[in-house]
Amino acid sequence: MKSRFIGIGILVGFGLSILMATGAFAAKNEIVFDVSMGKVTFTHKKHSETLQNNCLKCHHTWKQGETSGKKCLECHKAGPEGKGLSAKEVFHKTCKGCHDEAKKANKPAGPTMCTQCHVKK
Ligand code: HEC
Ligand code: HEC
Ligand code: HEC
Ligand code: HEC
């Protein structure tokens, strides 16, 4: 009886580890950046799927297989007085950077114009 429970436990654990390794577990569906320039709606889950769950494309300080960690803003502080790159710089590099490159390569791309990402009500 006991060993059966352990067997089930291992199976469940194995299933969980697959979910976590693929990142299906932790990825948030949608993230909205509410900034003065206009709200940016980021389809987090859709992006993860488009990028074959390669979380490291954006979460560049994570190790392979990691599913959570520090937020971008914990290292990339907003504001010009901070050292290193600002939030605006790194978000534009990451988001717009990938869209620009994909567009140049004639691949499916996201928006590259300010007001396509920053939507004012
Ligand atoms: C296209 C870029 C991109 C990809 C790919 C991506 N993320 Fe994210 N993720 C972000 C951004 C941007 C945020 C929001 C900013 C922040 O809070 O750090 C975020 C936030 C998160 C958060 C919430 C952080 C928190 O504490 O609230 C988790 C968890 C997360 N991502 C997990 C994942 C996992 C797991 C994957 C891979 C399956 C993944 N992400 C793929 C860009 C991405
Ligand atoms: C644990 C700290 C940490 C976290 C979390 C982090 N970064 Fe960074 N990132 C750095 C450091 C350090 C650099 C080196 C440049 C600098 O001084 O800012 C960097 C550089 C960058 C660069 C510039 C790369 C280049 O080639 O010029 C981009 C873009 C970037 N980060 C985007 C992000 C995004 C998007 C997130 C969240 C999904 C994130 N970072 C989360 C520490 C972090
Ligand atoms: C590594 C590449 C990559 C990165 C990084 C990336 N995107 Fe995208 N994005 C895409 C692609 C590819 C599409 C088009 C998807 C499609 O049409 O199937 C897209 C589509 C979009 C769209 C159009 C609506 C939608 O969700 O399909 C918006 C808005 C967008 N991205 C915002 C962002 C923001 C904000 C960030 C940064 C937090 C970001 N993207 C980071 C590749 C990327
Ligand atoms: C691919 C989507 C995307 C495009 C295109 C884009 N941005 Fe952004 N922008 C963002 C994201 C994401 C942030 C980060 C929000 C944050 O700091 O939390 C941001 C931040 C900003 C900020 C700082 C935050 C604030 O107070 O508004 C400014 C200013 C800004 N963008 C202006 C622009 C301008 C001007 C353009 C056109 C040249 C542009 N953006 C194009 C996604 C985009």
State the CATH class. Alpha Beta
- Total count of domains: 1
Number of DSSP E strands: 2
Number of helices: 5
Spatial extent as radius of gyration: 19 Å
What is the helix content? 40-55%
Bound molecules: heme C
- What is the SS-derived class? mainly alpha
Distance between the termini: 61 Å
Query: Which term fits the overall shape?
Result: globular
Please trace the helix and strand order, writing H or E for each element: HEEHHHH
The largest sheet is:
2 strands, antiparallel
Description:
The protein is mainly α and 121 residues long. It is built from five helices and two strands; from the N terminus they run H-E-E-H-H-H-H. It has a two-stranded antiparallel sheet with strand order 1-2. The longest helix has 21 residues, at 2-22. It is globular, with a radius of gyration of 19 Å. Residues 13-24 have low confidence and may be disordered. It binds heme C (4 copies).
Q: What's the structural blueprint in terms of helices and strands?
A:
Layout: H1 2-22, E1 31-33, E2 40-42, H2 44-50, H3 72-75, H4 87-104, H5 114-117
Antiparallel strand pairs: 1-2
Bound molecules: heme C (HEC) (4 copies).
